[in-house]
Amino acid sequence: MYGHIHHIEINVSDLTVSRPFWSWLLNEFGYTLHQEWAQGFSYRLDETYLVFVQTEADYNQEPYHRKQTGLNHIAFHCPLDQLDDLHRKVLGRAIPMLYEDRYPYAGGPDAPAFYFEDPDRIKVEIASYK
Predict the structure, then answer these.
(1) What CATH number does domain 1-57 carry, 3.10.180.10, 3.30.160.270, 3.40.50.300, 3.40.50.2000?
(2) Which CATH architecture has domain 67-130?
(3) At residue 1, does pLDDT exceed 90?
(4) H-state helical runs in the chain
(5) Is the pLDDT of residue 66 over 90?
(6) pLDDT one-digit tens code per residue, 12-31
(7) Based on the number of CB atoms within 10 Å of its own CB, is 115 exposed (0-12), middle (13-18) or buried (19 or more)?
(8) φ, ψ for residue 81 (rounded to 5)?
(9) Measured between alpha carbons, how far is 111 from 5 in angstroms, rounded to an integer?
(10) Model confidence, pTM
(11) 3 state DSSP class of 57
């Protein structure tokens, strides 16, 4: 649809580490495998898809940091009645959590959410607010 996000492409430092992380999370939200090739893969939900590509060796020396120019974080909506269940699943996978001391209101007093990091330390938000 006009103006909706078509796709987002994220370069990752190690495809073999990032793929299991993102595949699990995106499957939780109902995304399905859309494309795969030697240097990447994508998952699709409706008309939007997320693409993950192995960073080329010449550009893979500097680690990602969300405070630098570029992507700060990616947020996924989760209905409030499913937030605790997904939170438990993420904790069970020993994924590095952020702001855990503020759960379930890590997004603010009126913003139920939680945050964690992918293998490259890209911040992921699970948001139950509008």
Answers:
(1) 3.10.180.10
(2) Roll (3.10)
(3) no
(4) 15-28, 80-92
(5) yes
(6) 999 999 999 999 999 999 99
(7) buried
(8) -70, -5
(9) 23
(10) 0.94
(11) helix
